[in-house]
Amino acid sequence: QVGIEEDHQHAQLLRLTHGSMHLPFMTWTAGQREFTPLLLGLYHLLPSTQQRKRTETDWVVIEEPEMGLHPQAVTATMLLVLDLLWRGYRVVLSTHSPHVLTMLWMMRQLKIHQARSQLVCEAFDVPHSQTMRLVAKAALEKDYRAHLLEFDDSGKVRSMDITSLDPGSEDERIAGWGGLTTFSSRFGDAVRKAVNEAV
Predict the structure, then answer these.
(1) How is the chain split into domains, by residue range?
(2) Which residue of 3, 15, 123, 181 has the smallest Cβ count within 10 Å?
(3) pLDDT for 54-107, tens place per residue?
(4) Cβ neighbours of residue 24 under 8 Å, at least 6 residues apart?
């Protein structure tokens, strides 16, 4: 259980409690420390009442949702992102994770091919319940964009639209998903060459 406690100097501290054991914030794992603020933010943005969306908030920015998380947890977080979209928020993710871009690529491909909402549920391994059907259907109607931020020759940061995430693109920045799949491709190439040379 995560809670907020007040110390003797009246400072409020996050504490992880398990039975009689109390673990201060700095003893948590990197995943717990990174995910807890996101979780608390999501609790605020995803009210369980009849209210779908916080009226005072239109944009949600999540920086590196993959930090310290197992790929299954990243997938669950991406499902929560779809829930945010269904509720009417506009969501910006900054990431260094090919897993996050794979989800974006999948959603774009499913939308292009006018896929059934059930395929979204299958991809996330969740039941095709009435609520999930609404979230998945809304997700298939949304627009998804990907931008690479890179330094130009003068040292300024430039943005490049790589939304297509087309692995067959002539532009390596698009084909390599902003450089996130480049190492995997090189690793695969090295294995392919080793196998061919061994024959």
Answers:
(1) 46-144
(2) 3
(3) 989 999 999 999 988 889 989 999 999 999 999 999 999 999 999 999 999 999
(4) 13, 15
